[in-house]
Design brief:
By secondary structure, this protein is mostly beta strands. It contains no helices and 13 strands. The strands form three sheets. Strands 2-1-13-7-10 form a five-stranded mixed beta sheet, with no helix packed on it. It has a five-stranded antiparallel beta sheet with strand order 3-6-11-8-9, with no helix packed on it. A three-stranded antiparallel beta sheet has the order 4-5-12, with no helix packed on it. About 30% of the residues are buried.
């Protein structure tokens, strides 16, 4: 029996405008990118806008913003490490941004004007073949959440054990 162990490759998204520089190795996401099975990624909820601040790295100079947004990317089920970059290199701070992965609140973030932060989340369990990132404003002085970049890499199989997916009664 031949067993091939292929090192996982990260999937990286740059949330940008249609014309701003694209970060190397990233997939461009524009604010009008509605989810489609043909691309395997896009927004499933939210009215999203974008801005390019014209300074900083290709991944951080531009951002998407909305009061609430949900982004989905197709992948195989399993455990993942996820990295999220958020913030605004312009004159605006953003507060009380709720970050949900797979429907679970994993963080509440604030950024100052001119600041971006990158957070890593490990052992994110994907069971439906799709990574789902939802960001929602949880209050505060700014009504928007922002996202600059997202990457994820598969780290293992779903080890939560067997599940009953369907039941039937005989007889």
């Amino acid at each position: 029996t031949l067993t091939v162990d292929v090192a996982p490759t990260p999937v990286e998204f740059d949330f940008s405008t249609a014309f701003s520089p694209l970060a190397a190795g990233h997939i461009r996401v524009t604010p009008d990118a509605a989810y489609a099975a043909s691309t395997g990624f896009g927004y499933t909820a939210g009215t999203v806008s974008a801005v390019d601040r014209g300074q900083g790295t290709a991944a951080l100079r531009d951002l998407h913003y909305a009061p609430s947004m949900t982004f989905a990317a197709d992948t195989v089920s399993g455990l993942y490490d996820v990295e999220l970059s958020i913030g605004d290199l312009g004159p605006y701070g953003h507060d009380q941004m709720g970050v949900y992965l797979e429907g679970v609140l994993v963080d509440t973030l604030d950024t100052l004007p001119g600041q971006t932060v990158t957070r890593a989340y490990s052992a994110v369990l994907i069971q439906d073949g799709q990574l789902t990132l939802t960001m929602t404003d949880l209050g505060g002085t700014d009504a928007n959440v922002v996202v600059n970049a997202l990457s994820f890499i598969r780290t293992g199989d779903d080890s939560s054990g067997p599940r009953v997916l369907t039941t039937s009664t005989a007889g």
